[in-house]
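__Record contents__

***
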Amino acid sequence: MFLVLSMILFLLPPYSGAENGDEFCPPTSCSPDGPEIRYPFRLKTQPLFCGDEGFELSCLKNKTLLRLPSSGDYYVQEIGYDFGSITIVDVQETACTIHSLLAPNLRNSRFHVSSLNQECTIFNCTNRIQNTSSFYRVVGPISCLNYDRNFVYVMRSFVYSDEILPLNCRKYKTVESFIDWFLADATGGTSTNPAMEIGWKPHKECHKCEGSGHYCWFNTTSNSVMCCKHDNPKFCFNYDRHHSPVKKIVLYIAVSIGGSTLLALVILIVYKSWKSENEKEAQLKVDKFLEDYKTLNPARYSYSDLKKITGKFKQRLGQGGYGSVFRGKFSNGIPVAVKMLEHSKENGEEFINEVATIGRIHHFNIVRLLGFCSEGTRRALIYEFMPNGSLEKFLFSRENESAQRPLSWEKLQNIAIGIARGVEYLHQGCNQRILHFDIKPHNILLDHNFRPKISDFGLAKLCSKEQSVITMTAARGTAGYIAPELFSRNFGDVSYKSDVFSYGMMLLEMVGCRKNIDLTIENQSQIYFPEWIFNKLSQGKELHLEFVEDEDEEIAKKLAIVGLWCIQWNPIERPSMPKVLQMLEGDLQSLEMPPKPFVSSNVEIGAN
């Protein structure tokens, strides 16, 4: 019976053409010179069926943009569909930031590091290397990372050796970078942009299809991947069924002989894979945590309870690297937001962090955890519902472009003060100090009166109030808001001041109603907003920001000065959150201008 059914299935004729009502996604691109965009990728403006989840692209000024959940935006230079590779570059291009030397964080994405990348060793020296040509493949010093008597150089890891370096140099970081980076000047200037090649695992059918000169397409009618001809895009077929019937019969006779053995082997492999060591450890960790914290205030719900609360997960509010958020309602009519932690690889730590932190604290400016679910590998968190969503959409959404600013300056100042009170409570108001490590507009939620509440404690870390220095094994947070000491201890020790840096970067974005690195401006060397605003204030000039009336200028200046204090490169020079609150609630005249918080890159933007 097994043999007969297999032969019937494989002798079916190929699929030819699209059925009536079937939907078709032709290849597209952002520009004539840009990479071709087709399955599994799709533009965000195209229907969902045109590509797989996690492969969404967008167009920005004729350039192709990819957003990695844990790293931010990258320009796409090339896409290789046959082997599943994509070459990306930092959108900041010539902008001089610490992140340009670091490989993207591919956690929570569908991509992996390509084998074509090269390991690089970053090291610093207390004096300049007088002749880098005497060292094989040494690039530097990297000007944007130099400060005082610290000069940063890079070399390929396979030639790296402590013995070949001068005594005044030492290694402090190993990263992966695409080989093209080594075509850069040895001057370490900002004229080059390192490229990274990352990969994905193509469908087996797509690998065969692309290799034969065709392209893949997802058929919504048959719910399967099809292979389409370039010269006739309406002629598509299932590649596995488009072979010689004789070969198929021979193949399936061999397969049927050992069918039961193979079936048992497949079941065993799937079972072992499902019960991987990582999942076991995560489950044990969560179970032990819940056993130790039986007296937690948030109520525990079953997965069937969640389906009732969310109406079978009908209304999705948002989605990120952690999973999805759905709108729900308790039986008494109280609206809630249900955050499903869908990626089990990281769920154990994130789930425990969230429940262990906000599950035991209550503050007006901290989002309230109302309940949780832990049932097997299914985990979820239930929060109070915040009708105005995140602060991010009021700062950066193009839909809010109008004759007036989306939020008034008085309301924006109140939001800044509310967030500062929330962070102060985390640092000072609990039995243990809570370091958030991911303060950004996306994690600030607004209630019906636009009062802010801090959310998303998945990266949080608990420590004693007496503990001034925190030990970290890796940087955590979101690119653009991460304090420099989280990348290298040469910039200082990790402490609660790291949250102050993130808060300062967010405060400057609130002032400009724009990203500190603005991707909409073509000349990327002229868009570093913090330096531009420092130059204006230090020269005693008016800001002349968009939407700023004369009566609002004082609030804008105050928020900008406080933000600049918070992003000082040296953590010691940053104020504590009580001091930040004092500055925000005081008069502008009582504020002093901070020192310049970064190395100059001669930025000039905006109005003069």
User: Anything to note?
Assistant: The domain at 277-384 is CATH 3.30.200.20 (Phosphorylase Kinase; domain 1). The CA atoms of residues 40 and 52 lie 5 Å apart. DSSP finds 13 helices and 24 strands in the chain.
